[in-house]
Amino acid sequence: MVTTRTTRADVVAAAGRMFADKGYHGTSMRDIGRAVGLLGSSLYAHIDSKEDLLVEVVDEGARLFLESARRAREAGGDSRSRLRSLIVGHIDVVLDHLDVVRTYLNEARMLDPTHRARVVAARDSYESIFRDVLGQGVAEGAFRDDLDPKVASIMVLSVLNTVERWYHPDGYLGRDELVAEIWRFVGDGLS
Amino acid sequence: MVTTRTTRADVVAAAGRMFADKGYHGTSMRDIGRAVGLLGSSLYAHIDSKEDLLVEVVDEGARLFLESARRAREAGGDSRSRLRSLIVGHIDVVLDHLDVVRTYLNEARMLDPTHRARVVAARDSYESIFRDVLGQGVAEGAFRDDLDPKVASIMVLSVLNTVERWYHPDGYLGRDELVAEIWRFVGDGLS
DNA sequence: CCTACCGATCGGTAGG
DNA sequence: CCTACCGATCGGTAGG
Asked: Model's pTM, two decimal places?
């Protein structure tokens, strides 16, 4: 087994894992150092500050979601199938980048106001893609005509963003089944 | 204006507010002291440790939700109306005890394993009340007959628990409208 | 990337 | 409830 040099990306990945688990303020630089086999002080050869690490992880989360949504929007099809692409893409991001997503969803509020504002803007932009597809769906008659796209997008994203809190990849529910369950609930509710 | 003695309840309430805002590890004893007009060290006249404060706030959250659910379960009516009571009760707890709820939902994982296990058990117990009502609803034909009560309870609670993250009491959506929107979405989804 | 260290802040205590 | 303080740990730096 060869031991490779620690890269900046290794440090950011370890930070994401630890921020997701113990929170930004619950993680020390020495914790992150230990995770990559370095002293806490040695991390400063790769980064300038602890907050830099949070900024980097959170920005990656924002980027992953936005790129996924832009791909889904461009995918074409009617509004129902574009919504399905949005949901599939969202779940893929959550399951393929769980640590980044958990840090993005739960720790972004620990950022200083300037960086936090950028994240809020990215989130709004992401939500607006859902809202637009839902609005188009109402116009096309694909969804109830009394649907409020603003409220509905929040409800759909509530279901999607909470997956991080309960879904276990090794549980009885596979990824496709997860998407199917969400699609059914979002489409029909309990009825 | 009379200045009253600080009580233990004042300290716990201030802790809940600060834990909700800045997280457990992002809040220092000196922060909490400042919020009640005391020094950090003076708080130890009221409590034994910082973690005691988290335990107390989180336990209160668990208690509020469980008591609400037990009342709803006892309320009678068919399964549809019992589910509605569960939802109304949940939203009342969230909106009337926002700081406690946010700490309960987001900071309980910072507890030591023993206390955390108790919270997980309380949460399971709360979720099982939703699951039971949904299962009864399927049996009564009030909901789709292919509904999985386990998955459905998670989806409903995802919507309910995320209210803390987006709802503003002074916004355009009143409490009754919020409940109506959730009820409609949970009942019918987008269709 | 480590050694050696910095000032600041942390949770908490003794004594009044 | 404050004064005075404790050892531990924090994020971070200088120098190699």
From this structure: 0.96
